[in-house]
Amino acid sequence: MTRGYTTSRDLTVEGLLISLAPILRGVRSRHPRQPDHRMAVILAGGRGTRLGALTDAIPKPMLPIDGHPFIEYLVWQLSAFDIETIVISCGYLGDVIHRHFGDGERWGVHIRYSSEETPLGTAGATRLAASLIEDERFLLLNGDSVCDVDCRRLLDAVSSEDLGAMTLTRVPDGSRYGTVELAADGRVAAFRQKDPISRPALVNAGVYAVRQQLVDLIPVDGPSSLERDVLPGLTGKISGVVSNGYFVDMGLPETYEQLQQNHQSLLRAVRRPDHFD
């Protein structure tokens, strides 16, 4: 049995948190309150193998840009939209992230940590981290990309009939990514695999607003991927919000090098406070 999931014979801390989450949400539902929607999860547990030796001693989200870890730019962005609580999902060398941020007070947020004992994939990591989220709706961000998106607008895009909303961005070359098609009503109609032909495309920008009901659909019997295992089965139930602003994925050596040489657009996208210069 993969560690981090609960059966009658497997009661790890991870498993207990996952199995108790729906029960705790049920207790909260009997004592309703107006949701604040001020919570977010950052997925920061990946190894970053495409970056080679750069991540041998440091996790990918902690690679520096202008003297600050890349993930810090995401924390600034969330803080700018009055997000109060951030759960950082850690895995590979997660203690490096924990030591840097601590409780988050310096950034004006409260930071919690969700730690994978073994790699759970983006979906499994989301399910584990969501056990630390009280809000019925919350933001979910990949820890290796930034998109200039209005986080409040994204949360508001989740209608009563939706399980979530995702940010989409247009790129000049969609061959590096899987592509997304939107229906006339603004909901996601299809997810397409990577196309070997280089052409402009609408792609997943890695910023979501999700309901806890979506989290409950994530498999519990092993590692799983949001992009491959979960989202393709939710077409028609997820709204798409297209961002025409800045987008960067720092997961390749060439894009990381570009960020090192020109980070001004990144700074504008996340609205970094002046006192962090």
Write up what this structure looks like.
With 277 residues, the protein is an alpha/beta fold. It is globular and about 45 Å long. The termini are far apart. The strands form four sheets. It has a seven-stranded mixed sheet, sandwiched between helices. The chain has helices spanning 13-29, 70-80, 94-101, 121-130, 151-156, 212-215, 226-230, 253-261, 264-270, and strands spanning 39-44, 64-65, 68-69, 85-90, 110-115, 137-142, 145-147, 164-171, 179-182, 188-192, 201-211, 238-243, 247-249. Helix 2 runs parallel beside helix 9 (264-270).
Q: Quickly name the level 1 CATH class.
A: Alpha Beta
Strand order of the largest sheet: 5-4-1-6-11-8-12
Count of the separate structural domains: 1
Classify the beta-strand content into a percent band: 15-25%
Sheet with the most strands, sense and barrel status? 7 strands, mixed
Overall, the morphology is globular
Instruction: Estimate percent helicity.
Output: 25-40%
Q: What is the level-2 CATH architecture name? A: Alpha-Beta Complex
List how many beta strands DSSP finds.
Answer: 13
Detail the poorly predicted runs: 1-11, 23-34
Q: What is the CATH homology-level superfamily?
A: Spore Coat Polysaccharide Biosynthesis Protein SpsA, Chain A
How many helical stretches? 9
Structural class: alpha/beta
What oligomeric state do these chains adopt?
single chain
Helix and strand element order: HEEEHEHEHEEHEEEEHHEEHH
Mean pLDDT: 88
Q: Return the CATH topology.
A: Spore Coat Polysaccharide Biosynthesis Protein SpsA, Chain A
Radius of gyration: 18 Å
Distance between the termini: 47 Å
